[in-house]
Description:
Rossmann fold, 6-stranded parallel beta sheet, 43% helix
Amino acid sequence: MGRESSLPQRVLLDSLIAESHAFNGQEIHADIGPGIARKRPAFRIIFPIVRLASRSRLANMLMVAAVVLGYRVIREPNGDAEVFQYGVSDNNVSAFTRLNECLDLRTRSAICMNGRPIPLGARLKIAISITPLRSAGGALRAQRHPDPLVHLQSVLAVAASVIFSVRPLSGNLKVVCIACDHSPIVMALLAAARQQGKRTCYVQHAPVTEHFPPLTYDLSILHDRASVEAYRKVSKRLNVPFNDDAVTILPPFAEAFRAPQVDPPPYRIGICLSFLPDKPRIKELVASLSARRDVAGIHLRRHPRCSHDWSAIAGMPKVYLRSQQEVGVDFFAAVDIVLVPNSGVAIEALHFGKPTFFTTGADAFRDDYYGFVVGGILPVFSAESLNAPTDFFDGGWKGRFLYHDETMIADVYALQEKVQMSFMKIYWEARKARNPVCPQ
């Protein structure tokens, strides 16, 4: 599944741009660009420039060259690695760590996680190479997207593809693992891996929806049955085959599920903040909670990529700004009830037994992006929610939630053993393809 025949670079670029547009250009993502512009005012200037520059081959070439030179998130594996795991966020690294804990020490020693930046000299050489840049600029102009954020995502993907075409992955490399299937860098890395005959593995790091790219990997390691069904819907929507034999489940939790419960008020309310938050909405919510006698404190937990200044809101009565490095289990131990935006932290909070509510309008994404409200997993928070905070989480809710938390019905150790066997299967297949006498 993960291998393709050799294709001309321009054909690969056209396919890569189409893939990037197919995900990022969906209507459900239309509010993200304006949200980024609100968070970072520089993009109010950058986006109009990109919209104009996308019409020119030369301008697209210059954008690709700029990414090649300055975007150090594009990385390559060390030369002796047999497995390359690429995903630079904390959640990506946690996903790889869960996989690696299932593997034996010999296999772990062959893994390179996130590798090394492309050397400056190599980036300079690529940035002044006319032939690949001309092809890249022509492909981007031919498929320019009217949304500047969507076009920028394609520029990132194309720049990474140019790098991987000039600097092919090591012949020693057998498997490429990724944890964010819609990242433009990942799309380019996967295209290069398949072009060069490598096996591919996807390790889920966050909730998914039917708007995500399809599973086209030699192995996909998913969180739960809800994720399996979401990807099955993706395949049906895009008319792409779904291979059940290439899918296995590994929950993101080692601990057992705890049913949501809470002691009598006053409550300690935890509010999880998105990396693209709506600050006026958060301020209004905090003010209303601070005025309530049944609220003892309001604890704000920032997304790792949230760079907003929260000092004004943190100065309001009863408000505590938690450390941005605090792990989830410690945060949940410090609060009684959790309010979430569009975030996978909702499943984590519920797993640890916290009554959890969705807060509308809290970020730049469409409300209920992951479908947790319509799916009966999260209730919407209102002023009355604190009057009976556990009523929603009854037996019927448990029957729905077990599709999102495999620890409710399965032995985690048995799942880990299955993941080990599934991964070792594609790993040894890749090694045998290079060395027919390698052991089973």
